[in-house]
Amino acid sequence: MSTPTHSSIRTPDDVPRQPLSELVEHWSSARLRTFVAAHIEGSTPTADDLFAELAYSTRIAQEATSGRWCVIADLLRTRNAMSWTELGTAMAMTGLEAKTGFHDWVIRQTRLRTVTGNIGLTDAEATTLHLLAEEVSW
User: Fold this and answer.
1) Which residues, at least 6 apart from 16, have a Cβ–Cβ distance to it below 8 Å?
2) Alpha helical stretches, state H, the chain
3) Could you list the pLDDT tens digit for every one of the 138 residues in the chain?
4) What three-state secondary structure class fits 78?
5) Rounded to 5 degrees, what angle do the CA atoms 36, 21, 59 make?
6) Cα gap 72→78, rounded to integer Å
7) Are 112 and 119 contacting, i.e. CB atoms less than 8 angstroms apart?
8) Which of 15, 62, 92, 127 is 20 to 30 A from 102, comparing alpha carbons?
């Protein structure tokens, strides 16, 4: 798959699937161009570079955080989650946001299993995770 030019990057969906290191490289290049334009050349950064920087940074954030609910599930399964406040703090959110987000993730994973037949959580796994989540204090 060829990488689109930065002029065709307008949203995170325009960024092709690639390793995180490549995403960072493309973001860094766009960031450098916008910085040089604004602070060294005294000109205005191009809209193409600004959109590329924004879209790549969003994809980097998505990639970096995509597995966090799996980590929460592992913390619950191993009984290493002390409180939802602690879990939320680790994810820069409130305990309520963490708990709600986790339960929503479990529901999405169960639906995914229904659609794919093998990816996602079974009903039994989802039930177990919901029960483990309720055992964790605030």
Assistant:
1) 1, 3, 4
2) 20-35, 47-65, 68-77, 84-90, 95-116, 123-135
3) 444 566 789 999 999 989 999 999 999 999 999 999 999 999 999 999 999 999 999 999 988 888 999 999 999 999 999 999 999 999 999 999 999 999 999 999 999 999 999 999 999 999 999 999 999 998
4) coil
5) 80
6) 10
7) yes
8) 15
pTM equals: 0.69
Of 32, 25, 47, 136, the C-alpha closest to 84 is 136
Q: What angle do CA 77, 113, 93 make, to 5 degrees?
A: 50
Q: Determine contact, residues 87/44, Cβ cutoff 8 Å.
A: no
Task: Estimate the crossing angle of helix 123-135 against helix 68-77, to 10 degrees.
Answer: 70
Instruction: Report residue 124 as tokens.
Output: 């039994």
